[in-house]
Amino acid sequence: QSAVCLPVFRFLYSDEVQIGPETVMTTLYTAKKYAVPALEAHCVEFLKKNLRADNAFMLLTQARLFDEPQLASLCLENIDKNTSDAINAEGFTDIDLDTLVAVLERDTLGIREVRLFNAVVRWSEAECQRQQLQVIPENKRKVLGKALSLIRFPLMTIEEFAAGN
């Protein structure tokens, strides 16, 4: 735990900050916990500079968790512009249901609905495994809950819809 607090203490006593990809989240958490807004700002700035399609969903989840609406907004914009890369990134299937819903509610995603649907199916399979549920259609629908109704099935061709799982 002392290693986690080290960047905070260094910042408090010297105004120096050394933030890296492996320490930024714990530093942000600690800065928020101990109400050090200047250090929070450094962490958020670091995250903004390092925002990419392949980490946008992970950062969106963290931005929502840490109540950082500006960072969350930037993540959503990145996801809109790079939807295909973002949903194919490793971290996509790790997001929570509320984050998935927040993304599916958007009208600005740059992807065909069938590809989005396939990504949502992948997410539901991962969620079934996290909840130790058998990966069957009934359980996939159950873990998706309200997210399933956000898929715009009418935007799919009959062939795309018929090929879906």
UniProtKB/TrEMBL annotation:
GO cellular-component term (any): P-body
Pfam families listed in its UniProt record: BACK, BTB
GO biological process, one term: neurogenesis
Superkingdom of the organism of origin: Eukaryota
SMART domains reported for this sequence: BACK (SM00875)
BACK domain boundaries: 56-164
PANTHER family found in the cross-reference section: BTB (POZ) DOMAIN-CONTAINING 2B-RELATED, BTB/POZ DOMAIN-CONTAINING
Protein name as it appears in the record: BTBD2 protein
Organism the protein comes from: Lophotis ruficrista
Gene behind this protein: Btbd2_1
